[in-house]
Write a structure and sequence with these properties.
The complex is a heterodimer. By secondary structure, chain A is α/β, with parallel strands linked by helices. Helix content of chain A is 42%, strand content 20%. Chain A contains five helices and five strands; from the N terminus they run E-H-E-H-E-H-E-H-E-H. Chain A has a five-stranded parallel β-sheet, with helices on both faces. In chain A, strand 3, helix 3 and strand 4 form a beta-alpha-beta unit. In chain A, helix 2 packs across helix 3. The longest helix of chain A has 12 residues. Chain A is globular and about 35 Å long. Chain A starts with a strand and ends in a 5-residue tail after the last helix. In chain B, a hairpin with a 4-residue loop joins strand 6 and strand 7. In chain B, strands 1, 2, 3, 4, 5, 6 and 7 form a seven-stranded antiparallel β-sheet that branches. The longest helix of chain B has 24 residues. Chain B is α+β, with helices and mostly antiparallel strands. The chains are: A alpha/beta, B alpha+beta. Chains A and B meet through helix 1, helix 4, strand 5 and helix 5 of A and helix 3 and strand 8 of B. Strand 5 of chain A pairs antiparallel with strand 8 of chain B, so a sheet runs across the interface.
C-alpha cells in the first residue's frame, strides 16, 4: 500500500503541484486547505506518514497547526512549504517539531528527497 | 506616485526595486520569461471590458503597512496555468498564489533592509470593468510584459512619521525561493 502524504495549503495550485510531484514518486496524497481541515483529515487518515504544510493560511496557519499536533502528541513528520524565508520563522517551526523547510516555488527533487527521508515508499 | 517627503520616496523606490526583481525571478523559476515594461499609471477603473482578476495582499510591519495588487486578464492566468500543466486549477486561486509568492520574495528582500513584514492571505476580485480603490499617497505601478500578455502590479505603502530603512547585517541569511532545509 502506498504511503499517504497530507498536503496542507490554501492554494489549489500548490496542492495540485505538490500532489503531482508526490504521486509521481508513488505516494498517495490527501489534501487539506488549512490547519483546521488538516486536523480533521489527519483524524480520518491515521495511516498518514508525512505532512507537507504551508505557513500562511486562513483560520489556522502552519505554525499553529504544528502547536496543535504537538499538544495532541502526534508525531507524524511535518515539512513546511512556504514563501517565507525569515530565519526566525524557520527556527520557530523547528522548535515546534517541523522536520524541514522548503521555500516556494519548490524543486520537485527536493520535495521527493524529503518525502523519501521521512516516509520511505514501501515501508 | 505621490511622495510626501524624500525619505518616504526612498523607501518606496527600494521596495519597488525589490518587487520588480522578485517578480521577474519568480516567473523565471517557472520558465516564464518576462521583463519590466513602462510603468504607466493605470486608471483605478481598469480599461476595457475583458474579464480581469486582481489579487490583493496586505502587509504590515513596525511603522510600515500597505498592500500589493496583481492585476491581469483572465486569459493571462489561463496561459500561465497551461504552461504549468495545471489547467484544471482555479484562475483566482492561481493569481492569489502568484501574488503570495511575489510578496513573500519582497518580504525576504526587505529583511536585510531592517524591515520585517507580516503578510495577509490573498483576496481576489474579478469581473469586467473592475474599479480599484484609490491608492494612498505612496503608491507605484510596476508593469511586466510576457510573451503575449501584461501583468500589472500596484505597490501601496503607508509609513509612520520618521520611518527609515535601517539595513542590518545578520548572521542568519534569509532562505530564498527553491531552498530546502531538512532538520
Amino acid at each position: 500500500m502506498a504511503s499517504s502524504v497530507l498536503v496542507v495549503d490554501d492554494s489549489m495550485l500548490v496542492r495540485r503541484q505538490v500532489g503531482a510531484a508526490l504521486k509521481g514518486e508513488g505516494y498517495e496524497v490527501v489534501e487539506a486547505v488549512d490547519g483546521f481541515d488538516a486536523l480533521e483529515k489527519l483524524a480520518g487518515n491515521p495511516g498518514t506518514r508525512l505532512i507537507v504544510c504551508d505557513v500562511n493560511m486562513p483560520r489556522m496557519n502552519g505554525l499553529e497547526f504544528l502547536e496543535q499536533l504537538s499538544s495532541r502528541g502526534n508525531s507524524v513528520p511535518v515539512v513546511m512549504l512556504t514563501t517565507e524565508g525569515q530565519p526566525e520563522l524557520i527556527q520557530k517551526a523547528k522548535s515546534l517539531g517541523a522536520k524541514g523547510w522548503l521555500v516556494k516555488p519548490f524543486k520537485p527533487d527536493y520535495l521527493a528527497a524529503a518525502a523519501k527521508k521521512f516516509a520511505p515508499t514501501g515501508s | 506616485m505621490g511622495i510626501s517627503n524624500a525619505n518616504d520616496g526612498v523607501v518606496l523606490d527600494v521596495m519597488a526595486r525589490h518587487l520588480e526583481a522578485a517578480t521577474i525571478e519568480m516567473f523565471a523559476d517557472y520558465e516564464l520569461l518576462i521583463h519590466a515594461a513602462d510603468g504607466d499609471t493605470v486608471s483605478n477603473k481598469v480599461a476595457g471590458d475583458t474579464e480581469h482578476y486582481a489579487a490583493i495582499i496586505g502587509y504590515v510591519g513596525k511603522g510600515i503597512r500597505g498592500a500589493l495588487i496583481l492585476l491581469t486578464e483572465s486569459s493571462t492566468i489561463r496561459a500561465w496555468l497551461k504552461h504549468l500543466g495545471s489547467e484544471d486549477t482555479d484562475v483566482a486561486d492561481a493569481l492569489g498564489e502568484f501574488a503570495n509568492m511575489a510578496l513573500g520574495r519582497l518580504k525576504t528582500s526587505m529583511i536585510p533592509e531592517g524591515v520585517l513584514l507580516q503578510l495577509s492571505t490573498p483576496t481576489i476580485a474579478s469581473g469586467r470593468n473592475l474599479v480599484l480603490s484609490g491608492p494612498p499617497n505612496l503608491s507605484t505601478w510596476l508593469n511586466f510584459d510576457g510573451p503575449d500578455w501584461t501583468l500589472r502590479t500596484r505597490l501601496d505603502l503607508e509609513l509612520d512619521p520618521g520611518f527609515e530603512l535601517k539595513p542590518v547585517e545578520s548572521e542568519a541569511t534569509p532562505a530564498e525561493a527553491g531552498d530546502a532545509f531538512l532538520f
